[in-house]
Design goal:
The chain is of the alpha/beta class. The protein is about 40% helix and about 10% strand. The protein has one domain: Aspartate Aminotransferase, domain 2 (3-Layer(aba) Sandwich). It has a seven-stranded mixed sheet with strand order 1-7-6-5-4-2-3, sandwiched between helices. Helix 3 packs parallel to helix 11 and helix 4 runs parallel beside helix 5. The N and C termini lie close together (about 10 Å). The chain binds pyridoxal-5'-phosphate.
Length: about 300
């Protein structure tokens, strides 16, 4: 990788030594240009769903590629908090079960589970504490996870001290007890390669505005295809049904050519069941460009190895 070239592609580096990717990553020219083009198109032509919907599908496809999963396993959501909420509202909890999380998780990935207890979906939340070295040792996970564990939810890398969790090992332990594993990769993706299939997690949430250098307002939720059937969301929107406008477009049907079936609610068979209302297209345009940019450098890096 030619660092000088990369710096030219990320304008902020001409003004600053930028150290705040853990907050908000700086955009590359690719991202800025894509957003400017979208704004110009919107300014000049107004609504253009025929072009915008394929961008949403393409962005899902690129996210699927970067984490090594299938397109049908990916949903486009506004942020990580809503991705985790989507899962929490969909999981079949074990009766009198427990949920195992770490204090190194981002607060959303802690609050959400306390809330499930308040709502009676779980009897116990097991919040693991870090030791004097700032880590939760693997044997603490092992002790906490048992046959009554419904969910293990863990961040790939902690937002607070950068601790990198042993995702594969934690997942293996959780699966031995038939628990559902959720991983938040917001501080991992863009820093090191992630393959959700190899890691074995059942679901993965990731936003675009940190190490991926995309805009706020775009995130992705992966759920393993074998687990989709058992995830039954307690919410739905017109983009999360089987006969959605995006699917009509994919089948080359007229988007509004026939009425929607309002006699029933049929969640999409694929991960798009987690998509509710209209997307923030401007953010997704930027997210798509950010994914393309990351994949371009990923390929350049691997060709140099
Ligand atoms: C690991 C992690 N997950 C989630 C979030 C919050 O994500 P969002 O604002 O997309 O809900 C953060 C923000 O810092 C984070 O560090």
């Amino acid at each position: 990788m030619n660092i000088d070239l990369v710096r030219k592609e990320i304008p902020v580096t001409s003004r600053r030594a930028y150290f705040d990717n853990a907050g908000t990553g700086p955009p590359s020219i690719n991202v800025l240009n894509a957003i400017h083009e979208y704004l110009a198109d919107w300014r000049d032509y107004g609504e253009n769903w025929e072009e915008w919907l394929p961008i949403i599908i393409d962005s899902r496809r690129l996210f699927a590629k970067i984490i090594g999963v299938g397109l049908e396993e990916v949903a486009s959501v506004p942020n990580v908090s809503s991705a985790l909420t989507a899962l929490a509202s969909s999981i079949k909890y074990k009766p009198n079960g427990n949920i195992v999380i770490s204090e190194l998780n981002f607060p959303t990935n802690i609050y959400l589970w306390h809330l499930q207890k308040k709502h009676g979906r779980t009897s116990e939340v097991r919040l693991l504490r870090k030791d004097q070295n700032g880590v939760v040792p693997l044997d603490e996970w092992e002790k906490a996870i048992d046959d009554d564990t419904s969910v293990v939810s863990v961040d790939y890398v902690s937002w607070t001290n950068g601790c990198r969790e042993k995702i594969r090992e934690i997942t293996k332990i959780a699966h031995e007890h038939n628990a559902f594993v959720i991983a938040d990769s917001f501080h991992g993706l863009g820093v090191f390669p992630i393959n959700a299939k190899q890691d074995g997690v059942d679901a993965l949430a990731c936003g675009m505005y940190k190490w991926m250098q995309g805009p706020h307002g775009a995130a992705y939720l992966y759920t393993h295809r074998d687990k989709l059937d058992e995830l039954d969301p307690n919410y739905i929107g017109w983009h999360g049904v089987e006969d959605s406008v995006v699917r009509r477009l994919s089948k080359q049907e007229d988007l509004f050519g026939k009425p929607f079936n309002i006699d029933d609610a049929e969640p999409a068979l694929d991960a798009t069941r987690f998509e509710g209302g209209s997307w923030g297209v401007v953010s997704i345009v930027g997210a798509k460009a950010a994914l393309e940019y990351a994949l371009k450098h990923d390929q350049q890096d691997s060709s140099m190895v």
